[in-house]
């Protein structure tokens, strides 16, 4: 019986010692995991900050692209309008009728001027319609007036800018590579 009690005490002591060892191992693992969690938390915060910054940069790039797409609208329109003006026709005003920063649709504009005859006005309208940058040319007003002792036709036209097929746009390289 004494040997059994001794054996029982040794087993209980060994169990207590073994549980203490496991507890120490688990505490060491918990400390390691807490340190990893802290390190990963700062890494996760850094990644989230970088993603937020990336989103902001993407938004800014989108705004820049949108502005860049419209920066040559007026030069193209003015070039096409000037090429379309026939003899005995002169323009007094060209104005946008839609906010230029609007992305809702194409840029609408009005043209006011005078023509020496109705044929000149008709030719001007046909020339504008023939442009790949202009569409929906509409005569808003037309009246006969006298300027410098001559009869002229004052007119107001409305039209829309149309983004043409890329093949219609001529590009001239700034730098030529030989």
Topology of this protein?
Elements: H1 2-70, H2 73-84, E1 89-96, E2 108-115, H3 118-129, E3 134-147, E4 150-161
Antiparallel strand pairs: 1-2, 2-4, 3-4
Give an account of the 3D structure.
The protein is α+β, with helices and mostly antiparallel strands and 178 residues long. It has two domains: 1-70; 72-164, Alpha-Beta Plaits (2-Layer Sandwich). Helices cover 52% and strands 24% of the residues. It is built from three helices and four strands. It has helices spanning 2-70, 73-84, 118-129; strands at 89-96, 108-115, 134-147, 150-161. A four-stranded antiparallel sheet has the order 1-2-4-3. Helix 2 packs antiparallel against helix 3 (118-129). It is rod-shaped. The relative contact order is 0.09. The model has no long low-confidence stretch (mean pLDDT 85).
